[in-house]
Design goal:
single chain, SH3 type barrels, 3 domains, five-stranded antiparallel β-sheet, 11 helices, about 60% helix
Length: about 350
């Protein structure tokens, strides 16, 4: 029996192979027991809690830590054996690649989870979560590039030349695609600064509509006239954007004109009359009503009030009601609205 154990194959005895195999088998059994008993109990416990952090932790252990433990187990078992230098290098390279892969996956998954948690806590979190795809793509590319450079450096390659080449190539790409990179940068500005979000009603220059989609390069707006307006992110951040979602109250200014033949007592009574009419509506805060100017053909009044809502349809309903009541009261009192007229005086000579 001992003679059999002492026999050598590829610079290792049979006993060495048995010890390495036993180490792997015992390690796999321990990991299986941990997954089937400890991890399952942790998962059931996490499902009963209100926070999602423990669920993410359990999933992270199952997805990343268990494969890494299997890799470490295999690595130490193989290292126990005396290997050919080329085989040792292959094992070392393979181990480094796998560890780098899982390390990058852990980092990217953690960042994505953190961003998703940050977004979902905000208003309209479900819609904002759809915007994460563009950001995660960019972040993943950066992390993978850094991870691969570190991997090559650990494997003994000279990464200085690689970094220099990437720097020169990056400058060339940046010059050739500066508009695209500008839109990408402004996408990050829109995402984190949040001047507007999906579903907001905007006015950009002379265009008005509702935001439907915010992408890496463009933002799409559904105009009131029905068509879809596509704007680059750079154009939007350079423009003056009116976001009506942030409106808490609407200031309304309108004017009316009456004929010059109106008696003085009626001219004086009109501001108070309009005030009474406006204060009958809700939700409204009356500001002022004044006999403002002498026009070419009318006596002009300027009226200001506030609608305590951003709803445009509500504002139009209130304004319509005020107009009808003003018309009704003026008709009762014999006050005539002015319209453009000219009086021609002719002298006989």
């Amino acid at each position: 029996m001992q003679e059999y154990l002492d026999e050598k194959y590829f610079n290792n005895t049979t006993q060495d192979y048995l010890i390495a195999t036993g180490f792997i088998v015992v390690g796999i059994l321990v990991i299986r027991i941990f997954r089937n008993i400890v991890l399952n109990r942790m998962r059931h416990w996490a499902e009963k809690t209100e926070t999602k952090l423990d669920d993410l932790l359990v999933n992270g252990v199952e997805r990343f830590m268990l494969p890494i433990l299997n890799l470490i187990l295999f690595y130490y078992a193989v290292n126990y054996l005396t290997l050919d230098p080329r085989a040792e290098k292959v094992v070392e390279y393979a181990t480094a690649c796998v560890i780098t892969y899982f390390g990058i996956r852990i980092i990217t998954s953690s960042l994505r989870t953190a961003l998703l948690s940050y977004v979902q806590e905000q208003e309209n979190g479900v819609q904002k979560a759809k915007q994460l795809r563009g950001i995660t793509i960019v972040i993943n590319i950066i992390i993978w590039c850094v991870g691969l450079i570190l991997l090559f450096n650990n494997l003994g390659y000279n990464v200085t030349a690689i970094i220099t080449g990437l720097g020169v190539g990056g400058i060339a790409v940046a010059l050739a695609a500066q508009n695209i990179l500008g839109d990408l940068f402004n996408y990050f500005v829109i995402f984190f600064d949040r001047p507007f979000e999906i579903g907001d009603f905007l006015k950009i220059d002379d265009k008005v509509g509702t935001v439907e989609y915010i992408g890496i390069k463009t933002t799409r707006i559904k105009c009131l006239s029905g068509e879809q307006l596509i704007l680059s992110n750079s154009d939007i951040t350079k423009s003056r954007v009116h976001n009506f979602k942030q409106m808490q109250r609407r200031r309304v200014l309108f004017s009316i004109g009456i004929v010059y033949e109106t008696p003085l007592e009626k001219v004086r009574a009109i501001p108070e009359l309009i005030k009474q009419i406006i204060e009958q509506s809700t939700p409204i805060t009356f500001d002022r009503a004044h006999f403002a100017t002498y026009g070419n053909f009318s006596l002009n009044y300027e009226i200001v009030y506030y609608v305590e809502s951003a709803d445009y349809n509500l504002y139009m309903d209130i304004q319509q009601n005020i107009n009808l009541k003003i018309f009704e009261e003026f008709e009762k009192r014999g006050i005539q609205f002015a319209y453009p007229t000219q009086t021609i005086l002719m002298n006989k000579t």
